[in-house]
Amino acid sequence: RDRIVRAAADLMHANGVAGTTMDQVVEASGTSKSQLYHYFDDKDALVTAVIKMQAARVMERQEPHLEQLNSLQGLRRWRDAIVRFIDERHGAHGCEIGSLASELADRSEPARILINATFQNWESYLAAGIRRMQERGELDASADPAELATGIMAAYQGGYLLSQAARSAQPMALALDLAIRNMETLAQQQKRASGAAS
């Protein structure tokens, strides 16, 4: 089953869901049609498994940075890791989850719900890191961590799409730099407020 899902995930990321056939998955995974349909009733069931696998792959890369996120410096390290990853691949194929969202969100309600839940989980790591920054007194306590996390995720997804089209990591670097600059503004506001209070 894992071999089938891995093969399908790789094919769908490279060629899109619509551009991937069950026959191609059979060939790429080195399995038989009977094995494929033993585990998955249809392509929709396979796509659901692919979304879950791609979410796990993305979070495996993201978690080491986001679980320890508690400062602007840590946010910049996360940004640098993302830009390096995209640069190594010249922006090709885009975000594993974002690409699926673009193709499936308006075509499959179950897929849209699952992808949205993945984004929300991803944003929860960012929001938790932002709350830790607030607890340390680095960011304005009145800022909404969930809203800031959504803004950062929007910058990430938009940056990835432009990087994919440009075959360059520069759009992602610019998008995340702008998002971090907004966070730095909140940090400066907090410093001014702390100075005024003292």
The secondary-structure class comes to mainly alpha
What's the Cα radius of gyration? 19 Å
User: Quick check: average pLDDT?
Assistant: 94
Order of helices and strands: HHHHHHHHH
User: How would a crystallographer describe the biggest sheet?
Assistant: none
Task: Tell me the overall shape.
Answer: elongated
The proportion of residues forming helix, as a percent range, comes to over 70%
- Strand % is under 5%
**Individual helix count:** 9
| Poorly predicted runs of 5 or more residues | none
Number of strands: 0
Distance between the first and last residues' Cα = 62 Å
Structural features:
198 residues, mainly alpha
